[in-house]
């Protein structure tokens, strides 16, 4: 197997300004207009339509021969993925839409691939000509950021540990003129005790660390992005069963989201002072593994009774959130593949949003609806705070019984965030269990487009 990632799709080449270049025409038809359109066609066209079983069902298409070239008739789905099925299924070539342009993201991500571990099995590119030239660059950025999340999550843990996450941050910094600093070893043990404890059982080449990236004018409003970077989660001494461990390469999905969102912020040159923090660890098992019953100290000065070594994500995030608050940002967003309880409550596609800030909640939810990237607000229910009580420490990391698991995890994180800082926690799945057009099975981004749209609206480029 290759030791380096396969090249990502060149999204910038897949959408070009329409300057009248030769291209196959895509004729858009909806269900209401299908019968009148069909009646007006020649018997040969009607036979071709019938032969390809095209009935203007959304997402369907047919290729029709013309006097000098062939063209496509298609019925588009609604939303961001309207063109995804076409991009997946049309022959290699260049195309243009007859009517107003549809959202471009689906066309790009319909041609996403991940073939790092297998021989490429794909046809050549499908290029779309568009008259909406201003929409090209934003669509390419969103597709590239989404592909980054997918690539990182899809990569096996043997090829993506804490050092590789650090390398991703370094590469991002080089592209955008940012700086990266990393804390590891004794400095980590002293300054970030929970990150150190969670990652202590891993081998030396997968040692725990806190990765920080800084970018932007210090005079601009400061924002922080925090991403859970558990590169593999065995569950620790509270070991997961085999089925539960199968996809734990994706437990760094929060870090992948934070890196991707940081890339969007920097590429768009939003007027912010960006602080990206990734606590990167592997939750492994060895003689140095942290244990159930251990009392962990924290950067915030609190103590945590470890009641479950498989509730490690909130531990590493606690130290990272404490560090983020020390710089006094006006906004913190954290992303984490944090709880199975979130999946039980809302399923894989709908990330729960936790925040006490009403304005931030409203902005994120509105952006999710506007950009077809929704989330669902869940309560930071104060009455459940008592579930975090410990007999020997300031709190436990995982209450007994498992009730309200996503909420109590968010309440744990809230203990490490200053009340005067706007903060939102997104418990993302980072995985798609079944393929949809433009969204293959495997790693995927959730609430990424919504979060960026919210930031772009709050901090517009003048």
Automatic annotation (TrEMBL):
InterPro entries listed in its UniProt record: Leucine_aapep/pepB, Macro_dom-like, Peptidase_M17_C, Peptidase_M17_N_1
Any one of the GO BP annotations: proteolysis
Cellular component annotations (GO), alphabetically ordered: cytoplasm
Pfam families linked to this entry: Peptidase_M17, Peptidase_M17_N_1
SUPFAM superfamilies: Zn-dependent exopeptidases (SSF53187)
CDD domains per record: Peptidase_M17
Domain annotation Cytosol aminopeptidase: ranges: 308-315
GO molecular function, one term: metalloaminopeptidase activity
Keywords: Aminopeptidase, Hydrolase, Manganese, Protease
Family that this chain belongs to: Belongs to the peptidase M17 family.
Protein name, UniProt field: Leucyl aminopeptidase family protein
Organism, scientific name: Sphingomonas ginsenosidivorax
